[in-house]
Design a protein that fits this description.
Number of helices: 8
Number of strands: 11
Shape: elongated
Distance between the termini: 30 Å
CATH architecture of the largest domain: 3-Layer(aba) Sandwich
CATH topology of the largest domain: Rossmann fold
CATH superfamily of the largest domain: Response regulator
Radius of gyration: 18 Å
Number of domains: 2
Order of helices and strands: EHEHEHEHEHEEEHEHHEE
CATH class of the largest domain: Alpha Beta
Length: 220
C-alpha cells in the first residue's frame, strides 16, 4: 500500500517541488492550498503524514493542527518561516511531531518525512489497531466496545507509549471544547477502559497509573 502524504502549502511552486520530490521517493502526495479544506480532507482520506504550512489562507496552521489532534494521531510536520514560533510548534498543547524552517532543501523534507514515519511505525503497539474514521479499536483481532471518549483516550496514550500524562493533559485531549468536568472523570474512563481491555486480554496491563501524577501506555 502506498504512503499518502498531504502537502498543505499555498505557494504553488513550492508545493509542486515538494510533490515531485515525494513522488521520486515513492510516496503518494496530495496538495491543498487553503486552510479551510484541510480538516475535512484528513477526515475523509486518512493520510499517513501531513506537511502543514503555518501561514495559510482561510485558516492558520496551528489551529488546523490542534483540531486534527482532537480526532487523529497522524504525524504532522509543521513548515514555518517564523522561527520565533518553533517552541510553540513542538509544544504538547499543539501536538506537532516535527518542524522545518523555510528556506529548506526538498531533500531535507523527504528525509524528515521518512524519519517521522519510522518513529510512528515503531510506536504502533503490537496487537492493537485503531480505525479513527469509525472510532473502532481491536486488540489481538478482537473488537473493544469503546465509547468515543474511551477511544480518544486509548488511541492517544497508545500512540505515545511510555510517556506519562497528567489528568489535566488528558482532559485537554479528550474534551477540546474545555467543558467543565471533574479531573476524576479521567479516572472513571481509565477504569472502564481497563475493564474492557481485560475482557479481551486478561493477562495484559496496558494502561499504567503513577500515583499522584497520571497515566501512561506500556505493554508488558
Amino acid at each position: 500500500m502506498s504512503t499518502k502524504i498531504l502537502i498543505v502549502e499555498d505557494e504553488p511552486k513550492l508545493a509542486g517541488l515538494l510533490r515531485d520530490y515525494l513522488l521520486q521517493a515513492t510516496f503518494t502526495p496530495a496538495c491543498l492550498a487553503n486552510g479551510l479544506e484541510v480538516v475535512p480532507w484528513v477526515r475523509s482520506h486518512h493520510p499517513d503524514l501531513v506537511l502543514l504550512d503555518l501561514m495559510l489562507p482561510g485558516r492558520d496552521g496551528m489551529e488546523i493542527c490542534k483540531e486534527i489532534r482532537q480526532f487523529s494521531t497522524v504525524p504532522i510536520i509543521m513548515i514555518t518561516a517564523r522561527v520565533e514560533e518553533i517552541d510553540r510548534l513542538l509544544g504538547l498543547e499543539l501536538g506537532a511531531d516535527d518542524y522545518i524552517c523555510k528556506p529548506f532543501s526538498p531533500r531535507e523534507v523527504v528525509a524528515r518525512v521518512k524519519a517521522v514515519l519510522r518513529r510512528a511505525a515503531v510506536s504502533i503497539p503490537q496487537g492493537l489497531a485503531f480505525d479513527e474514521s469509525r472510532y473502532k479499536a481491536t486488540l489481538h483481532g478482537q473488537a473493544l466496545d469503546l465509547t468515543a471518549v474511551e477511544f480518544k483516550l486509548f488511541s492517544f496514550l497508545a500512540a505515545n507509549p511510555g510517556r506519562l500524562y497528567s489528568r489535566d493533559q488528558l482532559m485537554e485531549r479528550i474534551y477540546p471544547d474545555q467543558r467543565i468536568v471533574s479531573d476524576r472523570t479521567i479516572d472513571s474512563h481509565i477504569k472502564k477502559l481497563r475493564r474492557k481491555i481485560a475482557e479481551v486480554a486478561p493477562s495484559e496491563e496496558l494502561i499504567h497509573s503513577v500515583y499522584g501524577v497520571g497515566y501512561k501506555f506500556e505493554q508488558n
